[in-house]
């Protein structure tokens, strides 16, 4: 059920009062600072990744495996941070900026099938030995490929 005009007006007044009282908290709720933080993290992770590549190459050139391993670990860590921050940035961008859209209970919810998914599995054959099953497979392949 959508909000009435008076409820929307009261909600906007509450939002204005909140943003005047605590602008940092209000920007966090809007998601703007989350996107900025995620972007900064991704850029810093990219710079660390380049430093990790430099360490890896330095270790390879100087034949110091410890330096190369440290460079690889720096690359791995920065890549992980970059991917998680990019996912966070995408999630923050997908959130509605309009609070009236976010207030509606049906926004952002989808139907998820619960339980196990029905997969078409081949019935397990317990009869026969390993060699008999392999011979049966071989025979089926030869029949499908025209005797070859």
Automatic annotation (TrEMBL):
Residues 94-103 have a biased composition (Low complexity). Keywords: Membrane, Transmembrane, Transmembrane helix. Residues 94-148 are annotated as: Disordered. The chain crosses the membrane at residues 42-60, 66-84. The keyword tRNA processing does not apply. The keyword Nucleotidyltransferase does not apply. This is DUF3040 domain-containing protein. It comes from Nocardioides abyssi. The lineage of its organism: Bacteria, Bacillati, Actinomycetota, Actinomycetes, Propionibacteriales.
């Amino acid at each position: 059920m959508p909000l009435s005009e008076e409820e929307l007006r009261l909600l906007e007044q509450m939002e204005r009062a909140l943003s005047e009282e605590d602008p940092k908290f209000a920007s966090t709720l809007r998601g703007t600072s989350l996107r900025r933080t995620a972007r900064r993290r991704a850029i810093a992770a990219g710079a660390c990744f380049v430093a990790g590549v430099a360490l890896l190459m330095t270790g390879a050139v100087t034949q110091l495996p410890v330096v190369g391993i440290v460079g690889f670990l720096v690359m791995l860590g920065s890549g992980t941070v970059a991917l998680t921050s990019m996912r966070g940035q995408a999630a923050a961008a997908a959130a509605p900026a309009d609070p009236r859209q976010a207030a509606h209970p049906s926004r952002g919810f989808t139907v998820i099938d619960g339980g196990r998914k029905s997969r078409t599995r081949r019935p397990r054959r317990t009869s026969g030995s390993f060699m008999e099953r392999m011979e049966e497979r071989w025979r089926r392949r030869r029949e499908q490929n025209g005797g070859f």
